[in-house]
Write a structure and sequence with these properties.
The protein has a single domain, classed as Lipocalin. The protein is 9% helix and 52% strand. It has 1 helix and 14 strands. The strands form 3 sheets. It has an 8-stranded antiparallel beta sheet with strand order 1-14-11-10-9-8-5-4, with no helix packed on it. Strands 2-3-6-7 form a 4-stranded antiparallel beta sheet. A two-stranded antiparallel ribbon has the order 12-13. Strand 12 and strand 13 form a beta hairpin. 22% of the residues are buried.
Amino acid sequence: MFREPGALLARMAHDVELAVEQLRVREAENHQLEVDIDAASLTVTGALADGVVDPTRLDASQRAEIEKNVRTQVLKTDRFPRARFEGEFDPSRTPVPVRGTLELVGKRQPIALELSRHGEWFVGTVTLTPSRWGIQPYRALLGALKLRDTALVRVEVEATDSPKG
């Protein structure tokens, strides 16, 4: 089981957590990894309050508006319905290094992260700079609202389906 609950995006006074609802992971015997992400399946799970995700902080219409803006203006999912990671990992090391290429909006850039064991999960984070993929910071309210050019992505991989390190 692979889940990725999150790119953090600044919106008004909120950082929001987005979760990927649909993805496919393929792991080859030689420690190669492919992850296909349905970019339109991003959903808002909540807003951060004091570093904790609060699912009640945004109402349904606010969540829907953020999701629409992410799909249409940020990720342009009508033209680029998929995001893709291709890379490799080294399960013999602790933490487990993961290196590869992430494709967003038709552009590929190298990324790297490390996964550490936390109970039944391998967990890691990577900070992405969307402008590396040609994604301009989202603006609204005639430029008064602008997202930061960073997104913190948290990756969680269930240990039972992952190579043991």
